[in-house]
Amino acid sequence: MKMKSVALRDMKTGFSDYITQAQKDYILITKHGKPAAIVWGVEGRDLEDIFYMTNRAFWTTMRKRRSQKSMPWNSAKRELGL
Known about the structure:
alpha+beta, YefM-like fold
C-alpha cells in the first residue's frame, strides 16, 4: 500500500473521493504541514477485525505475551478465571 499526503483544507472539499482512494492507499492528512491523521480504508472488513487491528491495548498485550516463553497451566487457568 502507498501513502498519499493531503492537506486538511483539501480533504474537506474532496472527502468522498479520498474515502474511495483510501480503500487502495493510506491517506495522510496534514494540518499546517504536520501529520494529523491517517485515513485507512476498511471496506469489506469485519467490525471485530477493525477493532483488534486498531486497538493499542490489544497489541500491547500481544507483544507482552509473545515475549514470554510460556505460562504455567495453573497461572493460565487463574488468569482466565477457570
